[in-house]
Amino acid sequence: MTTSKSSTASRQDNARPAEASGTFVIGDIPVHRLGFGAMQLTGDGVWGEPTDHSEAIAVLRRAVELGINLIDTADSYGPIVSECLIAEALHPYPADLLIATKAGFQRPGPNQWVEDGRPKHLRAAVEGSLHRLHVPYWIV
């Protein structure tokens, strides 16, 4: 079978489709417009472990292979499950990967979200996210 030059070029262009979405800058970090939201990696009700742990890890790795370099997560997804999955799947992180996380919710149960913006809670959430994601600091 022969492959034409144009079909080879087309496959190469599609190898990392997130790159075709364009870019924008967060701080001084360019990221692709097509990112990955990690909220649904967890169990039902954004609570607990995913039904298929291996599949969740594979999804994260495939997202990066496809050119995703922005992953959105939060300490409340699982809670903490999403951040742990990201670290397990991708750490050490590619140099161009930006992980955006957030805090401000308590999770008493599945599908339950209680706002908590107290400094004590936010400090603990940020410190916990740093630990779970294996990063030394956040760029704010």
- Low-confidence parts: 1-12
The percent range for strand residues is: 5-15%
* Whole-angstrom Rg: 17 Å
Roughly how many Å apart are the termini?
A: 52 Å
CATH superfamily: NADP-dependent oxidoreductase domain
Q: What order do the SSEs take from the amino end to the carboxyl end, as H and E?
A: HEEEHEHEEEH
Largest sheet: 3 strands, parallel
Strand order of the largest sheet: 3-4-5
Structural class, by secondary structure, is: alpha/beta
Number of domains: 1
Q: Please report the total strand number as a whole number.
A: 7
What is the CATH first-level class name?
Answer: Alpha Beta
CATH-assigned fold name: TIM Barrel
- Helix content range: 25-40%
- Please give the CATH architecture: Alpha-Beta Barrel
Question: Shape from CA axes?
Answer: globular
- The residue-averaged pLDDT reads 91
SS element count, helices: 4
Task: Please summarize what this structure is.
The chain contains 4 helices and 7 strands.
Please give a handful of descriptors for the protein shown.
single chain, 140 residues, alpha/beta, TIM Barrel, three-stranded parallel β-sheet, 4 helices, 7 strands, 34% helix, globular
Task: Write up what this structure looks like.
The chain is an alpha/beta fold and 140 residues long. It has a single domain, classed as TIM Barrel, CATH 3.20.20. Helix content is 34%, strand content 14%. It contains 4 helices and 7 strands. The chain has helices spanning 5-14, 53-65, 81-90, 119-133, and strands at 23-26, 29-32, 36-37, 70-72, 98-100, 105-106, 114-115. The strands form 3 sheets. The protein has a 3-stranded parallel β-sheet, with no helix packed on it. β6 (105-106) and β7 (114-115) form a beta hairpin. It is globular.
